[in-house]
Design goal:
The protein has one domain (about 25-245): Acetoacetate decarboxylase-like (Beta Barrel), CATH 2.40.400. About 15% of the residues lie in helices and about 55% in strands. It has 4 helices and 16 strands. The strands form 2 sheets. Strands 1, 2, 3, 4, 5, 6, 10, 11, 12, 13, 15 and 16 form a 12-stranded mixed β-sheet that branches. Strands 7-8-9-14 form a 4-stranded antiparallel β-sheet, with no helix packed on it. About 35% of the residues are buried.
Length: about 250
């Protein structure tokens, strides 16, 4: 294989058998269970990196069931998103979410999510199940239960307008790619948006959330003080590709 062929062919690893196809990536009937809770604001400030600013004292714990996604297949994901504010170089402020932790059960979106956007994805076993009148979300890391979430099933319909407004906000994460000597080769703040969102239904109901300590799955680092709200919704959408908004290595 010639050098020019490598350059033309290379977009993901391995070179001759990539773990995922080129984007964009579309999701159909994506099911969300999102429980928003209050936590320790001091801990939030410890885990959210500058130049992002913490907004309030809440965290959104999300379970996402993805039965049909182009390129990535059928999988389930879970994690924590923290409300933040970002100011660009012109001083304009933008509110969104910082993706703090993600756990899922499928190699292809783990590889693609980390390599393309910088999603903080780790392999684990999240699950959403419908048990009679209750939605149940669990996360096991190996054999250990780390998260248990429950929510009443479709108690009340949600007004779609505020939910669509929240889904239109950007999300941020740090993309880290190490050099061969284990120093950072890439360390960037990345922003992305959900695109072409079609909301198929949205509901709310009573909810409870329990997080359990684990050395390698540190969701309990952001403890639950009280549950604020819960939402359950289904949507079709496209996961937009990212853009770099801050380079930590160039501005150190």
């Amino acid at each position: 294989m010639k050098i020019s062929e490598v350059r033309e062919k290379a977009f993901a690893m391995p070179l001759n058998d990539p773990a995922y196809p080129r984007g964009p990536y579309k999701f159909y009937n994506r099911e969300f269970v999102v429980i928003t809770y209050r936590t320790d604001p001091d801990v939030l400030r410890e885990v959210v990196p500058e130049p992002l600013e913490v907004v309030g004292d809440t965290v959104s714990y999300e379970f996402i069931r993805m039965p049909d996604s182009t390129g990535f297949g059928d999988y389930t994901e879970t994690g924590q998103v923290i409300p933040v504010r970002f100011k660009d170089k012109d001083g304009a402020a933008q509110e969104g979410g910082y993706v703090h932790a993600m756990y899922l059960d499928d190699n292809s979106p783990i590889a693609g999510g980390r390599e393309i956007w910088g999603f903080p994805k780790k392999l684990a076993t999240p699950k959403i199940s419908h048990e009679s009148e209750t939605l149940v979300g669990t996360l096991h890391y190996g054999s250990v239960l780390c998260v248990c979430a429950t929510m009443g099933y479709k108690h009340r319909e949600l007004d779609p307008a505020p939910l669509m407004k929240s889904l239109a906000k950007p999300n941020f994460m740090i993309k880290i790619i190490p050099h061969v000597d284990c120093t950072p080769r890439i360390c960037e703040l990345v922003r992305y948006y959900l695109e072409d969102v079609t909301l198929k239904g949205a509901w709310t109901g009573p909810a409870a959330l329990a997080l359990f300590p684990h050395a390698m799955c540190d969701v309990a680092r952001l403890p639950v003080r009280s549950v604020v709200s819960a939402s359950h919704f289904v949507a079709d959408l496209t996961l937009g590709l990212g853009e770099v908004v801050f380079d930590y290595l160039k501005r150190a």
